[in-house]
Write a structure and sequence with these properties.
Blueprint (H helix, E strand, L loop, with lengths): L2 E9 L3 H11 L5 E10 L9 E8 L4 E8 L6 E10 L4 H12 L1 E14 L2 E8 L3 E9 L6 H15 L6 E2 L3 H8 L1
Antiparallel strand pairs: 1-5, 1-8, 1-9, 2-3, 2-6, 3-4, 4-5, 6-7, 7-8
Length: 179
Amino acid sequence: MENRNIEIKFRVDDIEDVEKTIQQISDVSVVIIPQDDIFFNIINNQEEGARLKLRQFKNGSGEMIYYIRADIQGPKLSKYTKIDFDSKTCPSVREVFSKSNGILGTVSKVRHLYMIGQTRVHVDRVDGLGNFVEFEVVLKPDETIAKGEKIATELMKKLGIQENSLVSGAYMDLILQKK
């Protein structure tokens, strides 16, 4: 089943200060999630912004995520499909996709997950890249893209996020640009 959300990502200099503000307006306590995202090459796919990754967690489980998201700054639609794997299956999935598609690269990060209304707020410390915050406004089937964009923009204003800190692509793109 395809899901939709509105995403926005930005670079953060003082991550502790931003996280304090997020904690004050969050609906839940933080969940800390160390994770590695293994990005695979996508074969025979002409859709711009398409990506395929296996997210692996410390307990060995994981989730395969295929998503399409434009590489633009500011709020943008992301359409995704996700499959969860237990710790017994996940290594085999990685092996199969590594052999069939090849690995594009890996992103290692520690994610602090918060919820503000229907928005997942990720405070990410990304190895080799720095600190970021990402919003994922989860859209209900009947909600418009415009409504999700409005929620993301209002949250940006609450946190005092400046336009010049916005990031357009995935962390993997930023890592590849550094090489």
